[in-house]
Amino acid sequence: xxxxxxxxxxxxxxxxxxxxxxxxxxxxxxxxxxxxxxxxxxxxxxxxxxxxxxxxxxxxxxxxxxxxxxxxxxxxxxxxxxxxxxxxxxxxxxxxxxxxxxxxxxxxxxxxxxxxxxxxxxxxxxxxxxxxxxxxxxxxxxxxxxxxxxxxxxxxxxxxxxxxxxxxxxxxxxxxxxxxxxxxxxxxxxxxxxxxxxxxxxxxxxxxxxxxxxxxxxxxxxxxxxxxxxxxxxxxxxxxxxxxxxxxxxxxxxxxxxxxxxxxxxxxxxxxxxxxxxxxxxxxxxxxxxxxxxxxxxxxxxxxxxxxxxxxxxxxxxxxxxxxxxxxxxxxxxxxxxxxxxxxxxxxxxxxxxxxxxxxxxxxxxxxxxxxxxxxxxxxxxxxxxxxxxxxxxxxxxxxxxxxxxxxxxxxxxxxxxxxxxxxxxxxxxxxxxxxxxxxxxxxxxxxxxxxxxxxxxxxxxxxxxxxxxxxxxxxxxxxxxxxxxxxxxxxxxxxxxxxxxxxxxxxxxxxxxxxxxxxxxxxxxxxxxxxxxxxxxxxxxxxxxxxxxxxxxxxxxxxxxxxxxxxxxxxxxxxxxxxxxxxxxxxxxxxxxxxxxxxxxxxxxxxxxxxxxxxxxxxxxxxxxxxxxxxxxxxxxxxxxxxxxxxxxxxxxxxxxxxxxxxxxxxxxxxxxxxxxxxxxxxxxxxxxxxxxxxxxxxxxxxxxxxxxxxxxxxxxxxxxxxxxxxxxxxxxxxxxxxxxxxxxxxxx
Length: 750
Known about the structure:
By secondary structure, the chain is α+β, with helices and mostly antiparallel strands.
């Protein structure tokens, strides 16, 4: 992976910028220790002046314009120095805004002004804290690279591979088990275990058939953490690799991951990215799969790399390797939180162990199929992080360095975004509905201070995060989750022992498209409120225009409300569930293949995709094979060939769909080796999204918002038609029953 964090829009750092930077760094004065302190003190004083010097409106406008021009120029220069300068400008402008906000805008005149005003400023403090922590985490990602293993495999350590499962179907679990059996590691030094907390006979039978270990226990105490701890007591490998039962590892996983453990005896855990070969509800329902980075890509693409610089990589529960002795020293996998993985990493860091992150995708899994499951998973994460900050606060206690404390603090604070996000989505309504002034300042000054803060944050984050998070999508992701994680996070903060572990179901289907009215209700309420606010604001401008300051105040609130309408409408669009009939998603892949027909003829071809149940092929020319014909398919990995029986399920000139039929266990193992377990299977889909452009991203989110408005309009009218038809049917049925009763009564009288 490239060590350059640019988005592809910057120009190389050449010419005067490079010469000036080198000349400055090579001055002899830096050989003196006092020079560093003097420079630091001077920079601090200048920064304080930047933040606190009061300016008139015209002067503030000039200052904001200069900062913006400098940022635009820096955004076209490659390299980390330019990135750091953009971050410092953004931090300075944001702190200047907050200083002005606190010292000049909080003189509220009425209790209503005070209620809404202080609520907003607290939300802004939260947002600023999260922004500063995110800069700290992502300013200098480590970009760790794999280390080679020794040539003599006798020096390689022993590894136990754990695959915990509880209620997932065997169809989901078997592919992970088969891929784990394909790991490139000496056979006498690796053992695969299925940890079945469901205690299911068919799972035991499957493990016996394929030859992997099967471990269960009499109860489900402490959920996944307890399951792993029980297995640790029954195994003895020097290292433990953990995969969720739907995360399919590549054959190279251990060879890529284990080198760092041999180099660093204090390394306790190495995490690799979580990649998904099926779309999550956002990607599926909004049709953005592989076009817009999903919700988790920012964390695994950038944040974890930044954490790694500070020796604060989080264990994420899967796709990771841990040193058994380190786990034993901290008392096993942590059980005090429903996010046992993050707490385990925190305990390892407190104990003086190192943790590491390797941004090389070596496994992929199933994303949550629908929005309900997705929200349920995030609720558990929010509860777990609230437990950590309440019971194991990273800012307190011994064993952590400052950088580690800040990284863990950022992770825990992130899941408290629910209440601040709701505040931001409703703040302009305080003025439009109630005439409350949340800012005790003119609209012009608000724009001159707030807009630079917002614009610099957007431009700087676009540069830093561009490959892994597009502009404005963070608001969409957070708004969808805000209402649902707000209460659990705050409740767990007060009552940390009440949180319970819930398993995220995987591998389901959605037989029919539908709109989830229940989940969409909070977004619909917020959308309707903002639409009403927009209507009120327009009427205020038309019917009671007032003076210039009043007009500008209404205009600022209308602009804010319009943005909130876009975000809430986009959130509504996510609730429109798209039909999903495949329980085994396809993985796009261009691989060499051969079709063997029953008459002895063979066709060399290429795959378009594969799944656990079949493969898509492109045939040479316009060749076509009849539907339903039995055949065999050869797939290849290096010099290895796997031959699989199948039947044609789709056929048109030049294209073929084949479903596998009656595969033996050995053939299933061979299929895993030449498809899911290939070393390059997931690396090709990592970080390949279109680079971010804030204006293009804004247009895209606006289109998604329009889609949400259209969807809710269509669903409302469809529901009304169904209600009318239902009422008409019930009326007709009642009339029929009345007529029949009258007929029977007449017959009785006769």
